[in-house]
UniProtKB/TrEMBL annotation, chains A, B:
InterPro entries: Dimeric_a/b-barrel, Jasmonate_Hydroxylase-like. It comes from Parasediminibacterium paludis. This is Antibiotic biosynthesis monooxygenase family protein. Its EC number is 1.14.-.-. SUPFAM superfamilies: Dimeric alpha+beta barrel.
Length: 105, 105
């Protein structure tokens, strides 16, 4: 779904990845990370799609919220497993959302 | 693929969309827009994935480059067709990429 975010400014973390062929534990951990992120202070929403390349964008109130999530214990473990098992490569971009606009039929 | 972007700061445009069932002309126009965007001054790269929700992130040197692409003639027509035919809803977010980091096996 399209995340319902507040008026800018707020932050976006764009996480773009290519997976390895290793699937074991990936979906479970991925779902758990979404649940845990939702419980973090300053979390605003998330959008995710994969076909070949995977793109997950999470939205946050400020840089502190992003930093706290990056250092959350279960998430640290998942990041380590991600590098060891699930991801061939990834890029994370921390962005200030300055402006947004939308369309709905 | 993961876009090869320069050191921050640069800009990202996150375009998140849900499609209608109307497919006619979508793939052709979509491919053409990627080709045309690549020819724009200030274009840095693009990442795209769809499963249900579609996420396309394009990267740009600055806000002027984004504005020029938004107003490019063929792109204006594609945006109009998008609203009339292909998209049930979308959200566009203009973001300043402040920091990035990556991982490669």
């Amino acid at each position: 779904m399209i995340a319902k975010t507040p008026r800018p400014p707020y932050y976006a973390v764009i996480f773009t990845s290519l997976k390895t062929n290793e699937e074991e534990g990936y979906n479970e951990t991925s779902s758990l990370m979404v649940e845990l992120a939702e419980q973090q202070a300053g979390y605003l929403g998330q959008e995710s799609a994969r076909d070949g390349v995977g793109i997950t964008v999470s939205y946050w109130e400020n840089l502190d919220a992003i930093k706290n999530w990056k250092l959350q214990t279960d998430h640290l473990l998942a990041q380590k497993q991600g590098r060891e098992q699930w991801y061939a490569c990834y890029k994370t971009r921390i962005c200030l959302v300055e402006r947004d606009y939308g369309f709905e039929k």
